[in-house]
TrEMBL record:
Organism: Geotrichum galactomycetum
Record's protein name: Uncharacterized protein
Amino acid sequence: MATGGGSYKFYDEMRRRLDVDVTREDEMDCLIAGLDFFITEIPEEVFCYSEQDPMSFAEARPNIYPYLMVNIGSGVSMVKVTGPGQFERIGGSSLGGGTLWGLLSLLTDAKSYDDMLEMADRGDNTKVDMLVGDIYGGEYSRIGLKSSTIASSFGKVFKQVRRGQAATSVDEELPQEKEEERPAHDKFADFRGEDISRSLLYAISNNIGQIAYLQARFHGLEHIYFGGSYICGHPITMHTLSYAINFWSQGEKTAYFLRHEGYLGAVGAFLKHQPSAWRDEN
């Protein structure tokens, strides 16, 4: 059994309870090995996402290097891969899945990540986000912005909260509460958890997509692969990442996903403990 991360105490406990040998492997080594394997060996593994065609499989490439891997878990790591076992972390972000899970745990009644994704599916971000159309009354074609483009994530919240406070103080003829004295959950009473979930999912995903594009452009990397527990095969997440890459690259780059993106590290660890001829034979 191979694993990455964790303490030696954990490994000793695993050996004792399961009576198995536990070998520690480097997490990033395993992720890259697994990704290389899926890209090169598994038919109909890599795909592009769009609302019209949710799973458009990419054609196999004779030479997969170099490429950018964007691994999204609690945080985000962006890794430039130039050959088998040859890679370097070139960037990342602390705004990842952990940010989404943490904030939605505070702002909604969701009890699990699945709850959060289901709420986002039912949500309407325009109730929370400020759009270009809200500011200009329509599109801003001169700089290429549609009226539906998000101008400010959560941009409508501040105005609505302040407007609600003012209305309450006038109607009830009571002095307006100081901001710090008002419970946080009361401030969001007029916003549905579903709308908040969708808005925050868009904000985090758009941010990751933009940073990924900038890293790919700076390092001259044509192909961008997304993986990690954050994606979870979720359509809205994949759509937003795809949209961000397409928008910022003006259609020159594409976001690639994998059917088995949640197993990259496990498969990589497995491969590292197989004989060198195993892949050819199997």
